[in-house]
Design a protein that fits this description.
This protein has seven helices and seven strands, in the order βαβαβαβαβαβααβ.
Length: about 240
């Protein structure tokens, strides 16, 4: 296995602790499949431990490579939304997926509205863990989603954890923030569910070989997250 996973620090990071302290996991995904690539193991474990799981999907991913489907952007959006429902059903059966309907590729234009929605959703969030795309991920929509989640987590008093997405897909994405990362060591059952969740996003794979390559690269024995405090809101 190459790329970032060949780094000797991969698999040797501090463990992410979920025992106690959290009753709810709120997952923010900029596009369908972000949740499966970045946080599938976390979602599965939170569900199995009795935490309430809630997923906020910001766009339908309709601006993905059009060669993955014979239909229009509208058809692709419908397909990807259905794939998202299937993936989350594998990881956390019964967990709601709420679609906000922002435009794929233009999330920055409605970032304040997303932050306001998430803040209202979190409410009093002292026992809530928020998982969102890493604010330094190469994709601009991921960065916008991460910033909105960070703003909401800070306002609600929730704990924020961030998951890279494009960083894992692009072996030339640069250095990972190893000094701020923690790992979730996956059981065989959790890894199997992660594999099934990623595979549910079938529109994103041009061939079985692409799927096999992606799974070999993404579905390892550990899942890495960036753990850092959310920004402290200014005092009024």
């Amino acid at each position: 296995m190459g790329g970032l996973q060949a780094d000797p620090r991969w698999g040797r990071l501090p463990d992410l602790e979920l025992d106690g302290g959290y009753d709810r996991l709120v997952v923010v995904a900029a596009h369908p499949d972000d949740e499966s690539i970045g946080a599938a193991g976390l979602i599965a474990r939170a569900h199995d431990r009795g935490m309430q799981v809630y997923v906020a999907l910001l766009t339908a991913g309709e601006a993905a490579d059009p060669t993955v489907t014979d239909g229009s952007r509208h058809a692709l959006a419908r397909m990807r939304l259905a794939e998202m429902e299937e993936a989350v059903g594998v990881l956390a059966p019964g967990a709601p997926v709420v679609f906000l309907g922002a435009q794929d590729g233009h999330l920055d234009e409605c970032e304040p509205h997303v932050a306001a929605y998430l803040t209202e959703t979190l409410g009093q969030g002292s026992r809530t863990l928020v998982a969102a795309p890493w604010r330094e991920d190469p994709h601009p929509d991921h960065r916008s989603a991460g910033r909105a989640a960070a703003t909401a987590a800070a306002a609600a008093g929730a704990r924020l954890i961030e998951f890279p997405v494009r960083l894992w897909l692009d072996t030339h994405a640069g250095e990972a923030p190893w000094d701020r990362m923690v790992q979730l060591a996956l059981t065989d059952a959790e890894r199997d569910r992660k594999v099934a969740a990623i595979a549910a996003h079938a529109s994103q794979f041009r061939s079985p070989e692409v799927l096999r390559t992606r799974l070999a690269h993404l579905a390892g024995s550990v899942e890495l997250h960036v753990l850092e405090p959310a920004p402290v809101p200014a005092q009024s």
